[in-house]
Amino acid sequence: MKLLAVVMLVLLAGGWVVLNQIGGANYRKIAKLQMEGLRLRTLVPPMLYILDRLKLTARFPLFFFKIQRSVQKLNGQRHSAEMTLLYVGEMMCYSWLLLALGCLLTLAMGEGTGLAIGSVLGLLLPAAMVKDMHGKVQKRDHDILMELPELLNKIVLLVGAGETVQKAISHCVNQKRQEKNHPLYRELIKMADDLEGGYSFQQAFENFSKRCAVQEVSIFTTTVLLNFRRGGSDFVMALSDLSRTLWEKRKAITRTRGEQASSKLIFPMVVIFVIVIVLVGAPAFMMMNM
């Protein structure tokens, strides 16, 4: 088993060095892209070379499509294809490192347990990274849905008070300029910047809807674009109906988050219960033995 671990470790280390020399330089530009959460940028170029040479994007299009869709929502549409490759390359780097660590553990312990642990972790960690990304996307979508009804209410009040639709939206955006970390207002700020840069209201609003990539935002965008020229009571009524629907969805999301929070408390409560039983029962058990 030690011989196998040595061979695998040499292949892993030597393979990375060789691939980095052969094709790493062509992919270092991709590795420099700004993407939140990446920690192994310097190790990624050889993995990108493997992805390109084996044409894995063509062999597994559905997998890469799902990753790219999540990447677009979290990091924008610009360079989304390259960022998808970068993220998958990061996953491969973690698998490579864990497999190498398993080989080192096997050499240290003299058993095959380390290699088995490294192999299992090398498979589980990429799956956990994909799940974590999908969880972040779901949280982003929920944050947008939680805030959208309040935005609609403000727009309805401003339009009802005599403001035009465009000015009402701009007013709401300017009030929230400091909340750049919120996904809805981040996209709205980009939309306001597009309007100042010369985009028409329709173009900027459609781009805003595409960046959000949430069905309810698409409905909101369609409703606004269909009614903003007419304004008046028809527009206010349309947005009021949509706002009531979104408030119901917000209640459902709040209920779901509450259930998830309560379920996360079950394990700590069980641990505390076991500790209490041990603390209370141990003295009694000791007294019975005496």
From TrEMBL:
Q: How does it sit in the membrane?
A: Multi-pass membrane protein
Which residues are listed as membrane-spanning? 85-107, 113-130, 265-286
- Which InterPro entries does the entry link to? T2SS_GspF_dom
Q: What is its main location?
A: membrane
Pfam families the UniProt entry points to = T2SSF
UniProt domain Type II secretion system protein GspF: residue ranges: 152-282
Subcellular location field: Cell membrane
Alphabetically sorted, this entry's keywords are: Cell membrane, Membrane, Transmembrane, Transmembrane helix
Q: Under what name is this protein listed?
A: Type II secretion system protein GspF domain-containing protein
Q: Which organism is it from?
A: Paenibacillus azoreducens
Lineage here is: Bacteria, Bacillati, Bacillota, Bacilli, Bacillales
